[in-house]
Design goal:
Layout (H helix, E strand, L loop, with lengths): L8 E6 L12 H11 L6 E6 L2 H11 L8 E6 L2 E2 L2 E3 L10 H5 L6 E2 L3 H4 L9 E7 L15 H12 L2 E4 L25 E6 L2 E7 L10 E15 L10 E14 L9 E7 L2 E6 L4 E4 L2 E5 L3 H12 L15
């Protein structure tokens, strides 16, 4: 397929950092690349990036002084609310804190040091789509940076519309041009539209579908400690124990489990290890994913556990339907 010198879309797909040892295959990333390869879209340039610095380099190759107009940019990788993983998906858990959030920045988040690398492309990008499970979601366990924060920051930085996926992402959810197009049963991408001389305006692509046909259940878990976290808040250390068990109730089984979603929190419960995913929308216990009942009490308890200052030992940090 001939590559256009004036691509309308530039798709950046996460890749392993240079020198990565061990297996580099990744089911979601590999399947997404296969899907994009089947699209007859010569105007969509697909490149790989392990870091924000790589993203800068690849954009610089395309958006030269001779480039006319602006591109639509989409970035594909694993994610949690407010943070999209580029090369970080291949970094060992024990090295996450020391490597992922420092130059060349193996995650895309609101770190000013990393965003400064791409600020020069303001005016050359007409739209940004972040494609990763729940990267644009509002929920984030009380962490200050969630999907709304990230998309707002990028909209201000790049002076364009920025949206992010607000649901689980399947690797085949791309239209004929290779642009992210969630299935009809998914929540629509959400984000902000940049406007001159005023704050960005909240915007959504269509109306979220009404959930139906989910399998009912009655499950309850007592969260006793956080054992690992992907949130860039803590260094590696001991588990963080709750003052008192935190009750998590689930009324539905996820009809389409978020297989490729990163677990933001690894937790210890009265029923053994479990994981909280997608901004707390799901709890994965064993081979089953449950839809968590979202309540103010649960949110407050998680925020207290994450942020209270009476811990001598920090939490360990590792990787990640309403």
């Amino acid at each position: 397929m001939m590559l256009s010198d004036q691509p309308e879309i530039v798709t950046v797909v996460a890749s392993p950092p240079p020198g990565t040892s061990g297996p580099t295959d990744n089911n979601f990333i590999d399947a997404a690349l296969q899907t994009l390869a089947t699209k007859n879209a010569s105007a969509n340039r697909v490149v790989r990036a392990a870091s924000v610095r790589d993203l800068d380099i690849e954009l610089g190759k395309i958006l030269t002084d001779h480039f006319k107009g602006a591109i639509r940019l989409q970035i594909i990788g694993h994610s949690i609310s407010g943070m999209l993983s580029l090369g970080a998906s291949w970094i060992p858990d024990a090295e996450m804190v020391t490597r992922a959030f420092k130059f060349p920045h193996y995650v895309l988040d609101t770190n000013p040091s990393s965003l400064g690398l791409i600020a020069k492309y303001a005016g050359k990008i007409s739209e940004v789509m972040l494609v990763g499970c729940n990267v644009g979601s509002a929920s984030s366990f009380g962490y200050a940076v969630n999907g709304r924060t990230l998309t707002y920051t990028l909209a201000e930085l790049l002076r364009c519309t920025v949206r992010g996926a607000d649901d689980v992402v399947a690797p085949d959810e791309f239209d004929a041009r290779g642009w992210y197009a969630p299935g009809e049963h998914r929540r629509r991408p959400k984000g902000w539209r940049w406007a001159e001389s005023m704050p960005p305006v909240w915007t959504e692509l269509g109306v979220d579908p009404v959930r139906g046909g989910r399998l009912k259940t009655t499950q309850s878990f007592e969260l006793r400690a956080i054992t690992r976290s992907l949130l860039p808040m803590f260094d590696v250390g001991a588990p963080r124990e709750a003052r008192r068990p935190i009750r998590i109730s689930c009324k539905y089984i996820a009809t389409e489990p978020p297989q490729s979603a990163l677990p933001e929190l690894h937790v210890e419960t009265d029923r053994g290890p479990a994981e909280l995913l997608c901004g707390g929308r799901y709890l994965r216990w064993g081979d089953t994913s449950y839809v968590v009942d979202q309540t103010p009490q649960l949110s407050a308890a998680l925020i207290d556990l994450l942020w209270r200052a009476d811990h001598d030992a920090p939490v360990s940090l590792a990787s990640g339907e309403r």
